[in-house]
Design brief:
The structure is a single chain. The chain is α+β, with helices and mostly antiparallel strands. It has 2 domains: 108 residues, Sandwich (Immunoglobulin-like); 164 residues, C8orf32 fold (Roll). It has 6 helices and 14 strands. The longest helix has 15 residues.
């Protein structure tokens, strides 16, 4: 068991005061058998009203209504998590072999189909070409290994590049440029997994690492595949390794735009937007602080 504190601050700056529309926040970590939110605090300026809800994917979503104009919007989230080891531990039980190609039971197939549908249909040909030239699945009979092969191929073939631009690159852009942000790499992995027959979803959250410990990190993203008998299993193509306790999920969706940490609108007749900054800092404790 360990404790993890995550401080995430986003600041938008403007040359003059602007009016704000509704903003949607996906910042609260998803709880489960190995993660529990002990404390959470949101600090937002200017003055606001807030409503919590759960979306169709089970994510906790905060909707904020900003009550006054301002030349700066600051959103700070601080959470304290209790993390335990996943159970049952795979090291103490026989590994689960999931045959590839996968098949689903009658009660799973309808939901699995929703996660097999591409979100970038215009990129399917390019992604198939990349798969054919990069990945050899001819001798692979285990679906867990297939997920790892895809993630490693992206890690080895696509260079990580932190981007300040909004949005996510299309898979075609990521392949052609040979680089992308963690969200771009996760989106490419999402599409590759779906094309080869594995239901997949986009995961957004935090990575507890050296950069976050130093307060220099941003949010992180990776992909998760659904495997019969195993369930949702995460793989981080930016790192080229399966997800672990250092990955903290705040939201999952069948589309990358569904779990943007902060999204919203503002009304700016003077074109006064200057930019934004994002910082994420983590601190781990052996005992509750």
């Amino acid at each position: 068991m360990s404790w993890l504190r995550i401080a995430h601050e986003t600041t938008y700056r403007y040359k003059s005061e602007v009016r704000f529309g509704t903003h949607r926040l996906v910042l609260r970590p998803r709880e489960g058998h190995d993660v529990r939110v002990e404390e959470m605090r949101l600090e937002i300026s200017p003055e606001f009203e807030l409503e919590w809800s759960r979306d169709v994917f089970g994510n906790s979503v905060a909707t904020i209504h900003l009550l006054s104009a301002a030349n700066e919007l600051r959103i700070r989230s601080e959470v304290l998590l209790e993390q335990t080891a996943p159970f049952p531990l795979r090291a103490v039980r026989r590994p689960v072999h999931v045959p590839f190609p996968v098949t689903f039971s009658e009660y799973e197939s309808a939901v699995a189909a929703a996660y097999l549908a591409t979100t970038h249909p215009d990129d399917a040909v390019k992604v198939r070409e990349w798969i054919a030239s990069t990945i050899d699945l001819g001798e692979v009979a285990d679906a867990t290994e297939v997920v790892a092969i895809v993630g490693r191929a992206i890690r080895q073939g696509i260079k990580y590049r932190r981007r300040e631009e909004k949005g996510v690159q299309s898979p075609t852009s990521t392949i052609e440029q040979g680089s992308g942000s963690c969200r771009d790499l996760a989106t490419l992995m999402l599409e590759v997994l779906r094309i080869i027959g594995l239901p997949a979803r986009f995961a957004s959250g935090y990575l507890d690492c050296a950069a976050s410990e130093a307060g220099r990190a941003s949010t992180h993203a990776w992909a998760e595949a659904y495997l019969p008998e195993v369930g949702w299993t995460g793989y981080d193509p930016t790192l080229g390794e399966p997800t672990s306790g250092k990955h903290v999920v705040t939201g999952v969706s069948n589309h990358p735009r569904g779990v943007m940490p902060v999204s919203g609108t503002f009304f700016d007749e003077q074109k006064s937007y200057l930019g934004m900054t994002v910082t994420v800092q983590t601190e781990r404790f052996a005992k509750r602080p």
